[in-house]
Amino acid sequence: MKTDQSFLTDVKELRTRARASIGDGAVTPAYRGDSKQAIEILQTVLATEIVCVLRYTMNAVVAAGIFSESVKQEFDQHAKEEQEHMRRVAERINQLGGKPDFNPDGLASRAASQYAEGADLIEMIRENLIAERIACEHYRELIRYFGDNDTTTRVMLESILTNEEEHANDMRDLLVAHGR
Ligand SMILES: [Fe+2]
Ligand SMILES: [Fe+2]
Q1: Which of 38, 137, 145 minimizes the C-alpha distance to 94?
Q2: 154 CA distance to ligand 2 middle (Å)
């Protein structure tokens, strides 16, 4: 059976183009996004993820009270996953030719979510729920933004979003379990 493949770029042409712009790394001529803008956006995502790592780690350490063991474990698990998100976003910035911004100066203002401490266990859970909901909203918008122009970044954000939705759900379950 013959299929119409005229929309595909000839392999030879692909190779020539890949060779011509070898200094651009993973950003090939068929990349339709604005890589400079993509890097800028991903720096805010990176900052958001770093803040999440810090907040959950701090929460896991200080969580105290009668239900603290299970809550601590949940916070620890989330901290680990936020660290994976952080790493993936940083790798993507690097692939796009940028330098991931890990500078602690101005970190909180670069992030989409806030670093809120929460005075007790319930408040911590609530602050985490808020932060997760902000991250979900932010990532949903960015997924639409990247669309078909940068599918790799979009797919990465989609998989992170799935995980953030689970985090939000976990926090809501904890609130319910604590009668809030
Ligand atoms: Fe995350
Ligand atoms: Fe999260």
Answers
A1: 38
A2: 17
How confident is residue 34, by pLDDT bands cut at 50, 70 and 90?
Answer: confident
Q: According to the model, what pLDDT value does residue 21 have?
A: 73
pLDDT digit string (tens) for 53-68?
999 999 999 987 766 8
Whether this model's pTM surpasses 0.70: yes
In the predicted structure, residue 3 carries a pLDDT above the cut 60: no
**Rg, the chain, Cα only:** 20
Q: Are 44 and 111 in contact (CB under 8 A)?
A: yes
Residue 99, classed as helix, strand or coil, is: coil
Residue 134: closest CA among 116, 159, 112: 112
Contact yes or no for 90/100 (Cβ under 8 A):
yes
If you measure from the C-alpha of residue 132 to the centroid of ligand 2, how many angstroms do you get, rounded to a whole number?
Answer: 5
Distance, CA of 129 to CA of 135 (rounded, Å): 10
Q: What is the mean pLDDT of residues 142-166?
A: 96
Structure tokens at 4: 């119409």
Alpha helices in the chain (DSSP H): 11-20, 35-62, 68-95, 107-110, 121-146, 151-177
105 CA from centroid of ligand 1 (Å): 20
